[in-house]
Task: inverse folding
């Protein structure tokens, strides 16, 4: 009994030392660390190359917003709130409102981000998100018109990352679309006599929703390995990232690439598109269903 009892702490210490050695090696030689895992057809977090992390979508958690959503993609967690204001439309687009998406990656969500003004990464992601929201027509800007040439709605779709573990683009797009789907606005009419917009205090109406886009991002490592849903450890080691956006019917909306050219070109892109549609069909077809 005494021998068995003394063996347990020793075994525990050995396991802790092994874990510490692995962590040290990971930090000092991250690329080699990843290569050794991929050589065994597995990733450091235990997933296969084409395996996606679990996802959850919860809506309506911010009572002060006109619409909101919280999304968890693995350990990556983002929260989105929609706030509406009334403004005058642009002269050349008198019947179109505005959709203004923004992503904040604060220092609190990851050691890789520092306090201060928005990072380049956050600005690039915000621009990409705006492109997808506009091209997909998730909320037709014409539906935000209150009175042509006089008053339209401006929707500020602000998202903050609470915890960053990679693939913020996919998580943020999910949160933004779910929050827009959750949004209601007060019924508004334009009073011509007083030249002002009057909003009802009792009647609220949901947004007119078009297509519902979902993004599926892949990291290309060493020109040959295609890794679905890359983590924050994998991202800095990737040659390029490919994001495939499909709508709620499985139709292709866009394919975006960031980084170097892809070895294999069209074959790799086709592989990513097929994998994205497969994931949508088998796991995320109804991801906005509860919204």
Result:
């Amino acid at each position: 009994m005494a021998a068995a009892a003394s063996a347990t702490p020793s075994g525990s210490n050995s396991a802790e030392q092994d874990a510490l050695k692995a962590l040290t090696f990971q930090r000092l030689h991250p690329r080699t660390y990843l290569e050794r895992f991929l050589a065994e057809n597995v990733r450091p977090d235990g997933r296969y190359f084409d395996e996606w992390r679990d996802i959850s979508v919860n809506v309506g958690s911010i009572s002060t917003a006109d619409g909101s959503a919280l999304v968890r993609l693995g350990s990556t967690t983002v929260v989105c709130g929609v706030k509406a204001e009334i403004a005058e439309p642009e002269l050349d687009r008198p019947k179109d409102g505005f959709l203004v998406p923004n992503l904040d990656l604060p220092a609190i969500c990851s050691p890789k981000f520092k306090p201060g003004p928005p990072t380049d990464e956050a600005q690039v992601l915000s621009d990409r998100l705006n492109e997808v929201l506009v091209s997909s027509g998730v909320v037709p800007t014409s539906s935000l018109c209150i009175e042509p040439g006089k008053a339209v709605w401006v929707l500020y779709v602000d998202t903050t990352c609470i915890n960053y573990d990679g693939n913020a683009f996919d998580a943020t797009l999910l949160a933004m679309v779910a929050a827009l789907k959750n949004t209601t606005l007060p019924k508004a009419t334009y009073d011509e006599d007083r030249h002002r917009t009057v909003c009802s205090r009792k009647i609220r109406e949901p947004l007119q929703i078009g297509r519902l886009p979902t993004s599926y991002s892949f990291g290309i490592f060493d020109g040959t390995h295609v890794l679905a849903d890359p983590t924050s450890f994998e991202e800095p080691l990737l040659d390029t990232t490919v994001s495939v956006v499909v709508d709620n019917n499985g139709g292709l909306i866009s394919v975006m690439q960031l980084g170097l050219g892809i070895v294999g070109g069209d074959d790799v892109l086709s592989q990513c598109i097929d994998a994205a549609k497969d994931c949508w069909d088998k796991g995320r077809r109804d991801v906005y269903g509860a919204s």
Notes: The two ends are 58 Å apart (CA to CA).
